[in-house]
Amino acid sequence: MQLAGTLDRDAVAISPLILSNNLYPLKEAQKANDPFAFGGLKVVPKADKAFRANEELWFFVELRNPGTVLSNDIVPVVGAPVPLPKVQIKLDIEGTDFQGNKKKFSSPSRQIEVMQLRGVPNHYGIGNSIPLTSFKPGQYTFTMKVTDTVLKQSYTVQDTFRVTE
After folding, report:
1. Structural domains of the chain, count
2. What CATH number does the domain containing 144 carry?
3. CB of 38 within 8 A of CB of 85?
4. What contacts 47, CB < 8 A, 6 or more positions away?
5. How far is Cα 117 from Cα 119, in angstroms, rounded to an integer?
6. I need a surface site. Which of 18, 21, 101, 122 has the fewest CB within 10 A?
7. Is 4 part of a structural domain of the chain?
8. What is the reported pTM?
9. Residue from 109, 107, 108 nearest 93 by CA
10. Does residue 2 sit within a domain?
11. Does residue 8 lie in a domain region?
12. For residue 7, what pLDDT is reported?
């Protein structure tokens, strides 16, 4: 079997956006082919993309080979600074509730800490949660712009979700 194209493991890339309400650390090391496992973290996508208004919506992306700078903020036991990515994110959520009212939420672009994924060199995770208590039942689009301020590259990832009662 031959695949079209190639995968360059040294290329800079971002994964698709995962929206979830099922995220947890793994107790044991992941296997190479474990689905939705990212350096010791399991992020299970919400297949029907339906979330209740009393839940939190977790978002997650994986960065591969972002630009890094030495950080004196994190110094391991041996005393050498650790190279870390410098990343900013901007979130936008737009949608319409089932009564036809439009809603828009935007966050300003801000620096965010990335999580180095264990056992996977040069791979980092970005994730956080948003409470949905202010969202009325309806259809929404979640857009995240990720900016690698070291390499001066931006990526936009997007997905839709639904809020139910």
Report:
1. 1
2. 2.60.40.2550
3. no
4. none
5. 6
6. 101
7. no
8. 0.85
9. 107
10. no
11. no
12. 65
- Is pLDDT of 72 > 70? no
Residues sharing a CB contact under 8 Å with residue 69, sequence separation 6 or more, in sequence order: 83, 84, 86, 150
Determine the residue type at 12. V
Check residues 81 and 68 and name the one with the higher pLDDT.
68
In a domain, 95, yes or no: yes
In the chain, the amino acid numbered 82 is V
In the β-sheet with 37-38, what is the strand arrangement from edge to edge? Answer: 22-25, 41-44, 37-38
Q: Nearest-CA neighbor of 125 among 66, 45, 57, 74?
A: 66
With beta carbons less than 8 A apart as the criterion, state whether 84 and 74 touch.
yes
Domain around 140: 13-26+33-164
Of 34, 66, 56, 43, residue with least CA distance to 152: 66
Q: Give the tokens for residue 130.
A: 């948003």
Of 62-66, 103-107, 119-123, minimum mean pLDDT range: 119-123
Which are the contacts of 78, defined by CB distance < 8 A and separation ≥ 6?
none
